[in-house]
């Protein structure tokens, strides 16, 4: 039977710190601790605690902080936005060319071809 080392378990005072952080945030956000948000919050709190954020004030600040994007993620989002803008511009250019073509063909059908050059 495999058994985890004692160092992997939280002491009662450590659990109390994590519980106070979870209780504070769920009260502020008006969540139930049994909701999915409450469960994610508890998991995040434990992960941060086990990663070394053991001071209650720091733990509370880390859990409340908005997630930060890594530089690569931020650049990828900017690139996607720029590509979206370029695709939009290309679509507008195509629509404008089609509209101009329609106008030119309509004008030519009406007999004004001598005055219109493309």
| Oligomeric state, counting identical vs distinct chains | single chain
Biggest β-sheet strands, sense, barrel: none
Q: What are the low-pLDDT stretches, counting only 5+ consecutive residues below 50?
A: none
Gyration radius (Cα, Å) is: 30 Å
Structural class: mainly alpha
Instruction: Give the DSSP E fraction (strand runs of 2 or more residues).
Output: under 5%
Succession of helices and strands = HHHH
Spatial gap, N to C terminus:
84 Å
User: How many domain regions?
Assistant: 2
By DSSP, the count of extended strands is 0
For the residues shown, what is the average pLDDT? 79
* Coarse shape: rod-shaped
Helix fraction by DSSP (H/I, runs of at least 4): 55-70%
Number of helices: 4
């Amino acid at each position: 039977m495999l058994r985890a080392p004692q160092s992997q378990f939280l002491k009662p005072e450590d659990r109390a710190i994590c519980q106070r952080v979870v209780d504070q945030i769920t009260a502020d956000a008006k969540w139930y601790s049994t909701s999915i948000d409450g469960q994610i919050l508890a998991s995040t709190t434990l992960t941060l605690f086990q990663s070394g954020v053991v001071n209650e004030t720091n733990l509370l600040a880390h859990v409340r902080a908005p997630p930060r994007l890594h530089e690569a993620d931020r650049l990828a989002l900017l690139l996607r936005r720029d590509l979206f803008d370029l695709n939009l511009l290309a679509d507008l250019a195509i629509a404008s060319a089609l509209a101009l073509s329609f106008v030119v063909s309509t004008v030519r059908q009406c007999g004004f071809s001598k005055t219109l050059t493309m």
